[in-house]
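Predicting holo structure, zinc ion bound.
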Amino acid sequence: MTCTDDAAPPAVETLESPARGGVPGRVRSGEKVRPEQVRVHNRELLLRTLYREGPHSRADLARRTGLTRVSVSEVVGELLADNLVVEVGTRSGSRPGKPAMMLEFHEHGHQMIALDLSHSTLYRGAVLDLGGTVVARRDVEIGGSTGDDALAKVVGLVGSLRDQVTAPLLGVGIGTPGIVDVTGVVLSAPNLGWKDLPLRSVLVERFSCPVVVSNDANATVLAERSYGRSAADTLLIRVGVGVGAGLLLDGTPVLGSRFAAGEIGHVVVDVASDRQCVCGKAGCLETWLSTRRIRDDLSRARTDAERNRVLTVAGESLGAVLAPIVAALNVSEIVLSGPHRVLEGPLADAVTATIRERALTEAHGDIVLRLSDLGDDIVLRGAGAMVMDQQLGIT
Ligand SMILES: [Zn+2]
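Done. Tokens:
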């Protein structure tokens, strides 16, 4: 099944440049509004309302969105034809007249392929429905692959997942470590051996499908916003094969002027350290905190006290890097995402203690640090959320 099949939704556009806020057809303030933009705006508005708020009748939708009943009926007709909305029966009400037909966002009408490249031993992949539920899974062993080998494994994984898709495919979402620009070029991912790799273009050409590629921490923060319980101002730290941060300010992800916002893994924590990093420097945060380095350090620890020390030093390193960020932005919440058995306990405690010691004043109030409860699928679900944002305008 591919997006070029007849069953694919005709009104879903394949985007050439999937920039947030730069999506063709989106309405921006100050621009002259074209009829096509109005159509896309109305379509996204109705879909968003049904997705976030549950079933509505056509009349409910008109009241809720301020669109005319004629516009609502027209757009709902398109959404039904595209299998993005379903009629779910009439509402028994006390009002006189014909009972209203209720409409619902159709979670099972399309599927998405999601990849998580943030682990140290496996590339993880899944087919998701539009409710974020995993329909099928495939993993592939990395086995030390980098560069072209790593790319070949990613292409192979998308191909094998495509064979598992049982509904029209909305698109492919990929969360990768490293710096990714808005056109889906991986500018730098030292852990994968990628530099200036046009990952999105390669996959679009190969699979004729909408593809969105983003940094794994940014995917994670989107998953937290869509499916988790994060505050509007949240700093999310993703610990995997690398370490990255995703930042949500006032509910909006911050990408940075060169898309490297949140690339904290290669901030040098200790200039005198001899801990060599994949980036060529020594003493980077990742040399204490990546899952690979923690695993190596723990394997050398002989006693519980030594193991605790490894985790505490990793937490202190992260706290030292986060303290100025917390002080500068006054974020209210920090969410840690990664293997819970590593992150919870001494590591998380050391992060909080270090931030308190270095940065917190009365003005910042109480900062909350918690572990993400979205589990191991968080990057996969975030990659799915990216596809829905890009293709349907809903998060
Ligand atoms: Zn480094």
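DSSP finds twelve helices and 16 strands in the chain.
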